[in-house]
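A further point concerns the way the authors explain their paired sequence and structure data. Each protein is reduced to its one-letter sequence and a matching series of backbone shape codes. An entry of this sort, consisting of the sequence and the corresponding backbone structure tokens, reads as follows:
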Amino acid sequence: MSETDTDIVTIGRPLPKLAGVAPGPRRFTVVARWAEGGRAGRTDLVDLAPVIFTFKVFRPLRDGTVPFADLRLGDWGASVVWPGHDDLDIGAETIEDMAEAAMTNADFSVFLKRNNLTLDAAAAHLGIARRLVAYYAKEREIPRFVALACKELDRVLTR
């Protein structure tokens, strides 16, 4: 390569960077605004409970010793931290993964259309009641297990 070449080698996905964070409306949820990465420019409501309940280090958040609402944006937007508790830190990559696993009602409706699924067919594939499928397509919050099942069904049905 000559000195005038401006090619840059990139490996993997762009690292996410948070622009801002705030406690969400429910326990262990955070409103995350993205500055860089695959979700740049978006704002997501992210449930951090799966991380907080998986690792022992987060016990102070679970038992209320450290108030969850005290969360702050970490240095350079790379994480969410709780000031004065250096071991309490959730990286932007983890939060991005959690945001991508979530599903909005609009996302669910698009999933149904993309896979040509009727309410009955979706209920059969997901192992849930037809009524729930109708609720998820309109206004009811979509549980994480349903969102993950939809992502797997997308993969299987679009082969």
Notes: Residues 105-157 form a domain with the 434 Repressor (Amino-terminal Domain) fold (CATH 1.10.260).
